[in-house]
Design goal:
It catalyses: sn-glycerol 3-phosphate + an acyl-CoA = a 1-acyl-sn-glycero-3-phosphate + CoA. Residues 297-424 form the Phospholipid/glycerol acyltransferase domain. This protein is α/β, with parallel strands linked by helices. It is 51% helix and 11% strand. It has 4 domains: 3-203, no CATH class; 211-517, Glycerol-3-phosphate (1)-acyltransferase (3-Layer(aba) Sandwich), CATH 3.40.1130; 525-706, no CATH class; 710-814, Arc Repressor Mutant, subunit A. The chain has 35 helices and 23 strands. The strands form 5 sheets. Strands 7, 8, 9, 10, 11, 12, 13 and 14 form an 8-stranded mixed beta sheet that branches. Strands 1-6-5-2-4-3 form a 6-stranded mixed beta sheet, with helices on both faces. Strands 15-17-16 form a 3-stranded antiparallel beta sheet. A hairpin with a 6-residue loop joins strand 16 and strand 17. It starts with a helix and ends in a 22-residue tail after the last helix.
Length: 836
């Protein structure tokens, strides 16, 4: 690192311990096993600049986490006995002897290899404001004088991030025909690009002062035009319209504060440890590569709890990634929470813009600014929190703005990152149950509600949280594949214009995002046990049967994975899975001489449907196949595939399954193969599929598996039977028919003893109808639906999957003479393309 460092190395023992006492280092990645270090090659750490303080911070992390200790290189080469640390040269004529010797040795000795590990040290995590005094004195920067470096360490030493990059392919990098000087310059260039990108990925872009940001929003050409139009339309002065636009900007814009971030970090660390048993995070390495690739990153998570707002940002901060700005509903902008969230990166939006073109223009300009600057952002494609645990149909308003900004050439290439968030237990689940039952009306949040809710929350444990980052969607590549000539179309797009091609493209993209969220789900023990318990007819299962079924389903999840990103249970032993799930599920043990029986109270059974719904899609295809054997001992494989493919679109649209319809047959075939491998199905000498013998553990598991999709298939059977009942007239009025389906489901719930409000959720029936329109069995004609005669065969196939008692109940209900009683004749169907 130069003569100065070699002189200072004599005094290192005097500096090391006081510095370690002062600084608090945190490694990135937090799981250092992500770094592909091998034990058969020497290690050489590479810093972007020569700095004793950076070296000591690196040494502290290595000592704490068992990595090879970094020694100053001096005249020594990296060896198995001694790892070294070097720095990039200052310039073309600067000091580069250490890298030069390492490169020269590799060119001379073809057997010599070394792991070059780039290391970035960040003193503080401040995406500081431009031209701020803090930046001048205390904010970390790539090159500083010795005095300023000391001030930086004193100010930010308690929050020091040491990031380790992946080792460079040293042997693959060398070119034996090139001169050492040329190779060193090439190596330095590659490393400098890495360090520059890593700095951007960790700190994000520099921020403007909030007043400057708001002034820039008001200076936007589209906003100025909207101000003039608003003044003319509302017959007010331009100054009054501009004042209203400024109020909108103040309502929307975030106001980042590092002090607030530090405070929330300490609070959240305490909170997670208090109410959760850990946060399980998956696929961080892929996310890190995406953020390092100079892209605008847009995080689109599932939304199940208010904790989601804080959780993803907390994980990103802990993992050394730039914090996103978060779109939050304006209902959360109440004192003092609103101001605190705003300072942690929240920007607020109204639930509906209600044709307010001025508000729309200001908000769109704000989104444009975020994307232009390369500021990561996060919003929830569902629009609101799911009350049932299922993914909701996506709202496309915010996504449309982000897409038009990113594809309109207003920023860096964008990557959309779907994020799955799951919980052993969601803290709001009791409130959700009451809302679905209609006993509690959803109202705006307030400080009083927060205080009252916090006292209850802090007294309980909610198990583990599961966060998984899905496969990033390269937005430009996606547009190339799905929107021909999109560059020309985007250039011609006018403000507030949402042509049909844009609506269709964004709707397709939104569906892809939801499918990707589900494709990266984690199957936790609580979700798996809830699937088994709620699938039992009386919500009661013998303990030995529960243990065996859990083991078989866990094995199925491993042998027949939903996707390469889906995570099966960590444990495979059914007894261990039950032990983990039992306290979260609040199971009741009923002692019996032949073994305990496990059950739950009626209300708790309903609450567990939320946990079940988080993960039920992971077994959608095996469950669909299993249903063909619930009432038949054997069936031909090809016949099963034919009938299952016919039903697949329903499940795909309801659960956002990842396979296109044309791939459904192959996917169902893989599901059958998985069932055969696990012994849940058998095959005779002719290839005919058979269910296991009754009374065996495999038979019990197959029946439990079949019940996972049973309610969905029952709803589908109701829908198509009601439609076939109207074949003589040939059409139905959509709004009226949706209400008929809901009333019929309510009736069925009463007759069958179901205590599950989601069973008659009107949105599910609306979704069924849209699916039937998409596959050509219904045809939209204004407010009416024309029924295709082929629907009769579909109805018969759907009924075959149900038991005789359910077939009789459905047949009886569809033949009632007063089927329209209780239906509001003014009911209108919600447009299928509606978005906010």
């Amino acid at each position: 690192m130069g003569w100065l460092l070699r002189i200072l190395s004599l005094f290192i023992p005097l500096l090391r311990w006081p510095l370690r006492a002062w600084i608090n280092t945190h490694p990135s990645p937090s799981d250092l096993s992500e770094i592909a270090l091998t034990g058969d090659k020497p290690v050489c750490y590479v810093l972007p600049v020569a700095s004793v303080m950076d070296w000591l911070a690196l040494e502290a992390v290595c000592a704490e986490h068992g990595l090879p200790r970094p020694y100053l290189a001096g005249n020594s080469m990296p060896s198995m006995q001694r790892s070294v640390v070097v720095a990039l040269p200052v310039g073309r004529s600067g000091e580069r002897s250490e890298l030069h010797r390492i490169v020269a040795l590799g060119l001379h000795d073809q057997n010599y290899d070394v792991q070059l590990v780039p290391v970035s040290v960040f003193w503080g995590r401040n995406p500081v404001k431009e031209t701020s005094l803090f930046r001048i004195l205390f904010a970390d920067s790539e090159r500083t004088g010795r005095l300023r470096k000391l001030l930086i360490v004193l100010a930010n030493g308690h929050n020091t991030l040491v990031h380790f990059g992946q080792p460079l392919d040293y042997r693959g990098f060398l070119d034996e025909d090139a001169a050492p000087d040329v190779m060193v310059r090439k190596l330095v260039r590659v490393l400098r690009i890495h360090f520059r990108r890593q700095r951007a990925a960790t700190l994000g872009p520099a921020l403007s002062r909030r007043s400057q940001l708001i002034n820039s929003l008001l200076a936007d050409a589209d906003v100025q035009q909207a101000i003039e139009d608003s003044a003319r339309r509302d017959k007010v002065s331009t100054a009054a319209a501009r004042s209203r636009a400024r109020d909108y900007a103040n309502e929307i814009a975030a106001d980042y504060s590092n002090i607030a971030i530090g405070f929330m970090l300490r609070v959240l660390t305490w909170l997670w440890n208090r109410i959760y048993d850990g946060v399980d995070v998956r696929h961080l390495a892929r996310l890190r590569a995406t953020t390092h690739d100079r892209r605008e990153v847009i995080y689109l998570p599932s939304h199940r709890s208010h904790m989601d707002y804080l959780l993803v940002s907390y994980i990103l901060y802990q993992e050394g990634l730039a914090l996103p700005q978060i779109a939050a509903g304006v209902n959360l902008n109440f004192w003092p929470v609103g101001a605190l969230l705003r300072r942690c990166g929240a920007f607020y939006l109204r639930r509906s813009f209600k044709g307010d073109r001025l508000y729309t223009a200001v908000f769109r300009a704000y989104v444009d600014v975020l994307i232009q600057r390369g500021q990561p952002m996060k919003f929830y494609p569902e629009g609101g929190r799911s009350r049932t645990g299922r993914l909701l149909s996506p709202k496309t308003g915010m996504l449309s703005m982000a897409v038009t900004s990113a594809l309109g050439g207003k920023g860096a290439p964008a990557a959309i990152v779907p994020v799955y968030i799951g919980y052993d237990r969601v803290m709001e689940v009791n409130k959700y149950f009451d809302e679905l039952r209609g006993t509690r009306v959803k109202k705006g949040e307030s400080m009083g509600d927060l205080v009252r809710g916090s006292t209850k929350v802090l007294k309980r444990k909610y198990g583990r949280v599961f966060v998984s980052f899905g496969e990033p969607i390269d937005l430009q590549a996606y547009a190339d594949a799905h929107l021909p000539d999109w560059r020309d179309k985007m250039r011609a797009l006018e403000m507030d214009s949402r042509p049909r091609w844009l609506q269709d493209f964004v709707a397709t993209l939104a569906e892809r995002v939801m499918e990707s969220i589900n494709a990266t789900a984690t199957l936790n023990a609580t979700g798996l046990a809830s699937l088994v318990l709620l699938g039992s007819p009386q919500k009661a299962v013998a303990e030995d049967e529960m243990v065996k079924t859990l083991s078989l389903l866990a094995e199925l999840a491993r042998r027949c994975p939903y996707s390469r990103d889906a995570t099966p249970p960590e444990k495979t032993d059914g007894r261990e899975l039950l032990a983990e799930a039992e306290p979260m599920m609040r199971l009741i043990r009923v002692p019996h001489a032949w073994g305990d029986v496990l059950t739950v109270e009626s209300r708790q059974a309903v609450l567990l449907t939320y946990t079940r719904n988080n993960v039920m899609h992971l077994f959608a295809l095996p469950s669909l196949v299993a249903n063909f054997f619930a009432h038949a001992e054997s069936r031909e494989r090809e016949r099963v595939l034919d009938d299952a493919v016919e039903l697949y679109p329903l499940l795909a649209s309801e659960l956002f399954l990842r396979w296109p319809t044309e791939q459904a047959r192959a996917a169902l075939g893989e599901a059958i193969d998985g069932l055969l491998k696990c012994g849940l199905l058998l095959s005779d000498e002719t290839g005919r599929l058979q269910r296991p013998e009754a009374g065996t553990a495999a038979f019990a598991a197959l029946m439990s598996l079949s019940r996972i999709m049973r309610e969905a298939l029952e709803r589908y059977a109701m829908t198509v039977m009601l439609l076939s009942h109207n074949l003589e007239t040939g059409n139905v009025e959509r709004g009226r028919f949706e209400r008929q389906c809901q009333l019929m489901a309510e009736r069925m719930a009463i007759l069958t003893g179901r205590n599950s409000p989601e069973f008659f959720d009107s949105r599910l029936f609306r979704n069924h109808l849209q699916t039937l329109v998409r596959v050509g069995l219904l045809h939209q004609q204004g407010s009416k639906l024309e029924i295709d005669p082929a629907l009769r065969d579909v109805a018969e196939h759907a009924l075959q999957l149900l038991g005789a008692d359910l077939r009789q109940s459905i047949a009886h209900l569809t033949s009632l003479p007063h089927l329209d009683d209780g239906v509001d004749s003014s009911a209108q169907a919600e447009p299928a393309s509606k978005s906010d």
